[in-house]
Design a protein that fits this description.
- The protein contains twelve helices and 18 strands.
- By secondary structure, it is of the alpha/beta class.
- It has two domains: 87 residues, Urease, subunit C, domain 1; 257 residues, Metal-dependent hydrolases (TIM Barrel), CATH 3.20.20.
- The mean pLDDT is 96.
- Bound molecules: zinc ion (ZN).
- The site of zinc ion has 7 residues, from loops.
């Protein structure tokens, strides 16, 4: 693909200002030149010249918490048990939705298994080399202690932790996902030393470990056990936030999940989302997650943006919603976009992900408006192709 995008604004999301009057040359899918319009070399005769005036180039976004083979919606938990062919069809739909919404990377943090291998790993492998699908880095299956769900890997004896982690890595997992949460919200299902054992095994193989943790005991076990990232982190206290900053632990807050449950109060008749009691429960959860995010940000924790689509109720093209939620919670719009682009790339240890750089793949999309000041611009996609 040879293209020249003329006269665009660029939102690199490294500060609050757009770069104006920019031209980007793309040769064979890579950015060969980028700079001010009046310094642009003549386009190659074979190049398609696109008048991008009035549009803003945004780095391809990174959804740092996604479940590629699951479809989300108000019955997202039931959908996990769908037959394999339904899950694979959902993945294809999700891939097209995400790509069209400007998402170029999916950090997949858990999928059901078939023959003990997570389905997401097959999808990742099948999409490799496709120019109409996001790149995937996938965790494989969720690993639980004393599993509560049929669809996870249950480690019933702590002496099996190393084997469970090694199995996931042997299956081709790019990262390990621990599920640290039990029915009892006052205790963590993993002890700190058990998390440490999982982290030591994975780290020895060069594979990072992340953890689903919402309540405080689970978040603390994850952080002090040495995971590289906390998923959700609904309840974080000051000490834990300070420790996360010290260790460089990322936080992916997935605020959009609560926001979507809020909409289900008017779009469904499901008890869990309706009535005054549900409303006040949701409001309390939102307050707690915003407070935790404030503590983390003020302590210096790095925030990456993820929707939890599929494993939660959002859909694969909803990362803009999460960016809006991060802004609602107090991040500057450009910082929230940074969380959805290059910070997600850093979390994946993929240096070109979420960045628009000469010499790298032309993984960007174009919107109308300035997403460095107004996250709703991310919904106004003009081109993502
Ligand atoms: Zn999830």
């Amino acid at each position: 693909m040879n293209r020249v995008y003329r006269n665009a604004a660029i939102a690199h999301a490294t500060g609050p200002r757009l770069m104006l009057d920019q031209t980007i040359h793309v040769v064979d899918g890579c950015i060969s030149w980028m700079g001010p319009d009046d310094e642009s070399p003549d386009p190659d005769p074979s190049a398609e010249v696109i008048d991008a005036s009035g549009a803003t180039v945004v780095p391809g976004m990174v959804d740092s918490h996604s479940h590629t083979v699951l479809q989300g919606g108000a019955h997202w938990i039931d959908r996990i048990d769908d037959p394999t062919e339904v899950l694979l069809a959902a993945a294809e739909h999700n891939g097209a939705l995400a790509y069209g919404a400007g998402i170029r990377w999916l950090r997949d943090v858990g999928a059901p298994t078939r023959d003990d291998r997570a389905i997401s790993l097959d999808v990742r492998d099948a999409w490799r080399g496709r120019s109409d699908r996001p790149y995937i880095r996938a965790a494989g299956a969720w690993v639980e202690r004393q599993g509560q769900f049929g669809f996870t890997i249950s480690v019933d004896d702590p002496d099996d932790i190393e084997n469970a982690i090694t199995d996931q890595i042997g299956n081709g997992a790019d990262l390990i996902k621990l599920y640290i949460e039990g029915p009892d919200r006052e205790t963590s299902t993993w002890t700190v030393s058990e998390v440490e054992r999982a982290v030591a095994t994975a780290t020895a193989a060069g594979v990072p470990v992340t953890a689903h943790a919402t309540n405080l005991p689970s978040v603390r076990a994850a952080v002090y056990g040495g995971v590289s990232c906390v998923e959700h982190g609904t309840h974080i206290d000051q000490d834990t936030a300070t420790e996360m900053a010290k260790r460089g632990t990322y936080l992916v807050p997935t605020l959009g999940v609560g926001a979507s449950w809020d909409t289900f109060g008017t779009t469904t008749t499901i008890d869990r989302f309706n009535g005054p009691e549900a409303r006040s429960r949701l409001e309390a959860r939102k307050e707690l997650s915003y407070l935790s995010l404030h503590l983390a940000v003020n302590a210096g924790v790095t925030i990456a943006a993820g929707t939890d689509f599929g494993g939660g109720s959002l859909r694969a093209n909803h990362l803009a919603w999460e960016v809006e939620c991060l802004v609602d919670a107090g991040l500057e719009p450009w910082q929230a976009l940074a969380s959805a682009t290059w910070i997600g790339g850093d979390l994946l240890a993929e240096p070109s992900a979420g960045r628009v750089v000469i010499g790298d793949s032309a993984d960007f999309f174009l919107v109308h408006g300035n997403p460095l000041e107004d996250p709703s611009a991310l919904w106004r996609v003009w081109r993502s192709d």
